[in-house]
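Repro case for the chain-ordering regression, as requested:
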Amino acid sequence: MSDTTDNGQVLTTQDGKPLKAALRRALRREKLRAFLLIAPLLIFVLITFVAPIVDMLFRSVENSIVADTLPKTVIELNKWDSSSGEAPGEEVYAALYDDMLIAVDLKTHTRLGSRLNYEQSGISSLFRKTGRRIKRMDEDGPFKDQFIGADKKWGEVETWQVLQQFSPRYTDGYFLNAFDAQRGPEGIEMKPENEQIYMFLFGRTLFLSIVITLSCLLLGYPIAFLLASLPLRTSNLLMILVLLPFWTSLLVRTSAWKVLLQQQGVINDFLVWTRLIDDAGRLVMINNQTGTIIAMTHILLPFMILPLYSVMKTISPSYVRAAKSLGANDWTAFWRVYFPQSVPGIGAGAILVFILSIGYYITPELVGGTSGIFISNRIAYHISSSLNWGLAASLGTLLLVAVLVLFVVYDKIVGIDNVKLG
Amino acid sequence: MKLKTVILAGTALAFATSTALATDLTLVSWGGAYQASQKNAYTDPYIAENPGINVIWDESSAEAVAKLRAMNEAGNVTWDLVDVVASDAIRLCDEGLAMEIDADELLAAAPDGTPASEDFGDLLVSDCFIPQIVYSTTFGFRSDVDEWGGKEPTQICDVFDLETFPGKRSLEKRPINNMEWALLCDGVPKEEVYNVLETEEGQAQALAKLDTIKDNVVWWSAGAETPQLLADKEVVIGSTYNGRLFALIEEQKQPVKMLWDAQVFDLDGWIIPTGLPEDRLAEVKKLVKFATDTQRLADQAKFISYGPARKSSAPLVGQHATLGIDMAPHMPTDPNNAKNTFLYNYEWWADYRDDIDAKFQAWLAQ
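-- result from build under test --
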């Protein structure tokens, strides 16, 4: 369509304005009104969802604490050649003295110490100790000997290498750590084998989440099918049975699994009583991967059943009936006619369960023992115990990226339009 | 019109008095029996003397370090007094989140006039830390295990002896304490433990020793787990805090006994967050002075079997408030229990915790 007439004249409204502009203005007003309506939600999402994520992404590379606490030292230290094999010269120590005096007054030196201690053990106490000694040092120098006298670590090249390496305001150190790597003398290298853990845990988290999603699907599909096909009275009762555990506290459900699954627990006692196993051969079903899979499948099952049910509810029974009347047996009618129509529900349920399970940590912590814990358990540890928020942020970022990648892959294979919550 | 004025005036007055009367102080603790003992021994008597004070408890001590840091970054610290273990107090002090204190100025002297700094002595492990109790992490074992043939573990290395004492053990899911015990039982002398643990070989040695029992260990992360595991016969020996074992043995009457050998002493106490406004800080200081005086610390031992942090409190420790048994023999500091003890080296762990924890977790995951 064109906004000019055949003779080249522009279409106008009654008061002579071009029709296109007038329309655009009217639409703009409408759009603005619509925008104002969703603005509260948009602002809410920005503040409570987008901002924290951006903040987390930022924390995973942010490292201004060194340059802020020891500004003069950082400048002087940049001139030092770390491969020289010798500690830096007097001017660096003099700058350190000036910086430390201010830092001790502001009580920021111990903060810096615990930050750098993540990179090398012992720096925490080095700064604490030096902070106590700094006021007693001779302010006329020479500073190098006084610092080394306070702690011999100040004379070691490694200490200064760490300081120099982490003096920029942005660092890839946290991400290297999250990849089980570190920066050695010859560039980036893997950490020694006995310290590699995060990549392994990422792999395990993905693997267990897939297993949990599959077992949720296996258990949830028949239940959702029953819910959708039984008469309303029975299916309502069944629905309550599905929802009841959903409303029960997570910790109660997890603890209940402990009572059931432990070696002196209900299931093992029953098996011994029925002589299926003997007393010495009690099954180990908790504090390992089995425990995590069982407990998490139970907890996440409603998230699979509900989307499946709402999709199955919309599948008309007449299709299956038609298939059967055309000669299909039960299996063919189900597999060729019913199942393809329920795929959108499977997609929705699987995504929901998978994404929830990939970030779970309470249940794995309680029933996972050592072989059933997830990457989230380490993230929680770094947030709440070690206070290494930078590392926690970079692990969280990797988890986020992994989920996004899987999402794209899923979109390519199944198609994201093919997901329905009802 | 007149009635309206009266009502308005009355409401205004009610508001004025209520704000003037009640000063809310938010205390953070661990919940459970421990918080109850603090309430009974410290704050209830304090409120009885100072009716204007209202104490609100927040059971967040386990996440106190992270939460305080978040509050501090947000510039809105809502806590007034926080109960933390000594290692967390050191971390909070380093991060500038806890206020440095002068023990003699802030805390009450002992009844005989000994200044607080001497009365608490070495237990003032950080400039920000106000100690309350000495607790220990130690082992409890079931006394009815048939396979042991009447023998009972008497020393720490029996935990590593699967032949004489078969069965599952429970250990805490962190390197602290476990690494030290492993080295002690691998022939390292007590005074050498931290020197050895500083080296790569020493860490490998400790993990190798733990490897010998790894298949028989249930790892715990909450103090309540070991008592539960012992009661359920899931494990036969397990480490936890001595107060938890006391409750299991004396209150729940389970067939469990204490193994005090090589118990590791640790401290729990208060810190005051930095950045409190003057008026609230003044109230907090008053409360702390009262709550950590000699009598109050001794009173706490009536409710829970942890040792008071003041030397002057020890002779005042009496009987349990409800069980009526003498509490002194159940204190980790009692001479009979403290024949062989191990003191947690805070400064050392502050340096090596991150490094060794990474190795320990990698070892666990294998």
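Ordering looks correct now. The two ends of chain A are 38 Å apart (CA to CA).
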